[in-house]
Design goal:
The protein is an alpha+beta fold. It has one domain: Alpha-Beta Plaits (2-Layer Sandwich). Helix content is 23%, strand content 31%. The protein is built from three helices and six strands; from the N terminus they run βαββββαβα. Helix 1 packs antiparallel against helix 2 (70-81). The longest helix has 12 residues, at 70-81. It is elongated.
Length: 113
């Protein structure tokens, strides 16, 4: 089991979710976050609103997947989020030692879905 975390541009979220759905990855947690990377917080215009300060708005996706879905998840995120410009984001893949479904008590890969 792996825990895939991606930080992407907010306007790319719908495309990423569509690509994940096409690869039969349905369970995703999405959070609005702020941060900076190589852009160093350079102000940019997003949907007509100029972002100020040293932190930019981003979206964080968290996805728990079984081994067979790791590469499809990565591919879907890249396909949906990539613009070729600085600030496209990052993907982190971590080992997930345990997953437990609270309702049923299922553990491991079965608990993921």
């Amino acid at each position: 089991m792996k825990y895939v975390i991606a930080v992407i541009q907010p306007d790319r979220l719908d495309d990423v979710l569509k690509r994940l759905e096409e690869k039969e990855i349905h369970l995703v947690t999405v959070s609005e976050v702020v941060g900076r990377g190589r852009q160093k917080g350079i102000a940019e215009v997003y949907r007509g609103h100029k972002e100020k300060g040293s932190l930019l708005r981003k979206v964080k996706l968290e996805i728990a997947v079984n081994e067979a879905f790791v590469e499809p998840a990565i591919e879907a995120i890249i396909e949906g989020a990539k613009t070729g410009q600085i600030g496209d984001g990052k993907i982190f893949v971590l080992d997930l030692p345990e997953c437990i479904r609270i309702r049923t008590g299922e553990r491991g890969g079965e608990a993921i879905g």
